[in-house]
Design a protein that fits this description.
By secondary structure, this protein is of the alpha/beta class. It has two domains: 193 residues, 3-Layer(aba) Sandwich (Rossmann fold), CATH 3.40.50.720; 109 residues, UDP-galactose 4-epimerase, domain 1. 45% of the residues lie in helices and 16% in strands. The strands form three sheets. Strands 3-2-1-4-5-6-10 form a seven-stranded parallel β-sheet, with helices on both faces. The longest helix has 21 residues. It is globular, with a radius of gyration of 19 Å. The termini are far apart. 48% of the residues are buried. It binds serine (SER). Serine binds next to loops.
Length: 312
């Protein structure tokens, strides 16, 4: 039987992933862990919850032993914009935390999911249809930690046979838990502001194209990847993942079609703009499609329809 541990279970991805995993494998099979207590009753009471700081490897392995964990989704991390303000903390959590989790996965023979990002690319990377294997050289500490994380996962797989699997997520859009400290957060904030005030002031330029994904696609991608036949998986660092791409002007237009009074204004934050300008605009995800049959379900219009309906 699968016994899963999720780190960062209270975060943007973790809160939805934990519920999806419990619906699929049973509440008791999924141990939610974080350094914060979940506020939401469904997350707090739907199965075991443990305070775990992945910076404390002994506590992490004790919790894994108690619950007989065989699979880890390691989501505890700092995002890009906050990582630029606190680079040392980003390194410590995103890299040292991952090393602790990798060591635990090696010792207890667990499968491990690692979330990489489009932030693992940089200004030298081809920005359109970014290939699976290409120049990375990111210019943010967040990106540096993601490249190192990808390479560590690949190394543990090669060296110890640890079953590491990862995805390079684009900006993730969800109506349940807000992101925090990311460069792509505007694509979530815009919905709340549109519904409450019919206006949104965007910190990125109108023409900044970035790859994005609606959270249900991201959750399904993680679960499908972790259930995929291991013998078919060639890439053990992280897979490019495509779904949709848009600019602030384009998502603004899509919202305006549904809320005619809505308008978007711009007050560009040079720090986050520089990060966005160093990232790909679209990704070539053919390796994911071939090796484990990845196919997105949500494009821009379907995502905007659902976001507005759910957040209303
Ligand atoms: N969405 C993340 C961020 O903006 C990128 O992985 O930091």
């Amino acid at each position: 039987m699968k016994r899963i541990l999720v780190t960062g279970a209270v975060g943007q991805i973790g809160s939805e992933l934990t519920l999806a995993l419990r619906a699929r494998y049973g509440g008791d099979a999924v141990v939610a862990t974080d350094v914060r207590m979940p506020v939401e009753a469904e997350l707090r009471d739907g199965g075991p919850f443990e305070f775990v700081d992945c910076m404390d490897p002994h506590h992490l392995t004790r919790v894994m032993q108690i619950h007989h964990v065989d699979t880890i989704y390691h989501l505890a991390a700092l995002l890009s914009a906050v990582g630029e303000v606190r680079p040392l903390q980003a390194w410590q959590l995103n890299v040292n935390g991952l090393v602790n989790v990798l060591e635990a996965a090696r010792q207890y023979k667990c499968a491990l999911f690692f979330p990489s990002s489009v932030g693992a690319f940089g200004p030298d990377t081809p920005r359109k249809r970014t290939p699976q294997v290409t120049i990375q050289r990111p210019t943010t500490m967040y990106g540096v930690t993601k490249v190192v994380g990808e390479m560590l996962c690949e190394d543990y797989h090669r060296r110890f046979g640890t079953d590491t699997r990862g995805l390079r997520f684009p900006g993730l859009i969800s109506y349940q838990t807000e992101p925090g400290g990311g460069t792509t957060d505007y694509a979530v904030e815009i919905f709340r502001q549109a519904l409450q005030h019919a206006v949104y002031t965007c910190y990125l330029r109108a023409d900044t194209r970035l790859p994005m994904m609606y959270m249900p696609d991201a959750i399904r991608a993680m679960i499908e990847l972790m259930e995929a036949d291991p013998s078919r998986l060639i890439h053990r660092n992280a897979y490019n993942l495509g779904a949709m791409d848009f600019t602030p002007a384009e998502i603004g237009e899509a919202i305006k079609k549904r809320i005619p009074a809505f308008h978007i204004e711009y007050a560009v934050d040079p720090r986050r703009q520089a990060i966005a300008d160093s990232w790909p605009q679209t990704l070539d995800d053919s390796a994911a499609r071939e090796e484990w049959h990845w196919a997105p379900r949500f494009g821009l219009d379907a995502m905007v329809d659902e976001m507005l309906q759910r957040m209303h």
